[in-house]
Records
---
Amino acid sequence: MRAASTMAKQFPHITDTHRDFIARQYVFFTASAAEGARVNLSPKPTNAFRVIGDNAVAYLDRTGSSNETAAHLLADGRLTIMFCAFEGAPLILRLYGQGRVLHRDTGEYKALLTDAFGEEPLGARQIVLLDVDLVQTSCGFGVPLFDYHGERHNLDRWAEAKGEEGLAAYRLEKNARSMDGLPTGLFSEEPAEADPA
C-alpha cells in the first residue's frame, strides 16, 4: 500500500470538498499581524463562519477583550484563517488573503448579516470579510484527536449581563485600539486620552 502524500496542495479558490470539510469543523483560528506589532492568533466558533463565494468567506465577530484583528487589517490587511481536523481523517486547511472589517452601522454589514447570518446575536461587534487568494491543504498528521462536547455559553451570558449600553461602553474602553496602540477603526473618533496627573 502506498503511503499517503504529506505534500501541501494549493488551490486558487475554495472547492466543494473544502466547503464540506469546513462545515464539519467546530473551531477555526485567525492569524494577523502588522509591522511592529505582535502577531495575533485567535480561536473562533464555526457557527459564526460562512463561505460566501469561491474566493470569499466571512465571520461574525462578537465583542471581546481586545480587537487585534481589526487593528491589523486596518494597518496591513493580511489575514489567514485555519481549520484543522480534530476527528476523522487528518487535514489542515488554510485560507490566505486580504481581510477587511464591516462595521455594524454600515449597509454592507446589515446586508451580509441578513443574507448570511440571520438574526444578530447580542454582543455582535463587526463582520470580518476575507477575500481569499490562496487555499492550502496539508496532512494534519500532527494534530491530535479530540472529542467535541458542545459550545460554551459564557459569552452569551456575559453579553446579556452587560446589555447594549454596557457593551457599547466596553467596546469604547477596550476595543478602540490594539494592545500595541494601533487604531481598530471601530469608532470614527478615537477616545481621548486622559490628562496626565
---
Amino acid sequence: MLAADRLIALALMGFSVIVMWYAQRLPVGWEAETGPGAGAFPFWLGLGMLLASGAILLRSFVTRPHSGETFIPDADAIPQVLGVVGLLLGAIALIPLLGAYIALMLFLLAYLRLMGGHGWLLTGILTLTTPVFLFFFFEVTLKILLPKGVTEPLFYPLYAMFF
C-alpha cells in the first residue's frame, strides 16, 4: 500500500507541475479591472496539489507498513466504489440537461443519503449550501459561468443583481 501511495503521490506531483507550468502562460497575478488573472486559479490549485502530494509522499516514508496489507480492495468495497462511480457518471450526464448546480445537488443528495447514510439535516444543509457557495465562487467572484441547461432562465434575476 505504501508503494501505491508513493506512486500516486509522484504522479500527482508531476501533474501539478504540468498544471502550474501551463497556468504560467496566462496572467497569474491580480488584474486591475478584472480581478485574478486567468491563470491564477489553476496555478494556485496546482501548487496546493503539489504540496498535498508532497506531504503524502513524505508521510509514506515515515509510516511503517502493516503486516498483511494488500492493495486489492475487499469484496465489501467494490459495490461502494461502483456506486460512487455510477453516481458521478450520472451527475456528469445530467450537467448538459439540468445544469451543473442541479446535477451537483442530486449527486450530493444521493451520495450523502443513500451511500453515506447521513441524516436529512446534514444532507439538506450540504445539498443546498454547496451549489450556492459554488455559484458565488465561480460565477460572481471568478466570473466563470458554469453550464445551467434548462435552468438558465432561473438565473437571470441573479445575473441582473451581480453583473
---
Amino acid sequence: MEMIKDLSPLDKPREKLKTYGRRQLTNQELLAIIINSGNKDESALTIANRLLQHIDSFTYLRDITLQELIEVRGIGEAKAITILAMIEIATRLHTQHNEEKFYIKHPDDVELLLMERLRYVTQEEFVVLYLTTKNMLIHEETIFKGSLNTSIVHPREVFKDALKRSAAAIIVVHNHPSGDPINIVS
C-alpha cells in the first residue's frame, strides 16, 4: 500500500491544494486532508477511499452518523467527530442564516434557508418559520417528521408556538423525499 509520504510532491493532497487550488482535488483527496493521517499500514487516502466505498454516493456523507463513520476501518471517534464537524460547517455556510438576522421577502429566501437541509432527508418534514412584523426570522422549528410520503400535523402545534414566540407571521414548509420540490405556504 502506497503511503502519502511516498507520493510525488504534486500528488500529495495538501501540496496539490496549495499548487492547484481546492477545486482541483478529488473527493477522496479532500477527505484525506480532513482525515489528516493514516496509520502504520494505510494512508489517509486509502481510508478516505474506504469511506467513499462505504457510502453509496458522496451526497450521502451529509447524513452519515458518528456510529457509521466509526464502523469504517481506519476512522476512530476523533476522526469521525472531525468529519461530522466539517459537514456541519459546510451546511451552515450554505444556509447563511445561523449567525445573522435573516429576512424573508420572497419564496426564494425560504428556499435558500431550508433547501440544503431538506434536500436529502428521507422522510417528510413539516417545518414552521416564525417571523416578526418585518419578516425577520424569529425561529425555525420542525414540528413533525413523517414517513416517506406522509406528514400529519395538527394546527394547534403550529399556532401554539406562534403565540408563544409572539410571531406576527408564519410560513409552513414541507418537503417531498420522492424528489418533488418543497411546498411553501405563508
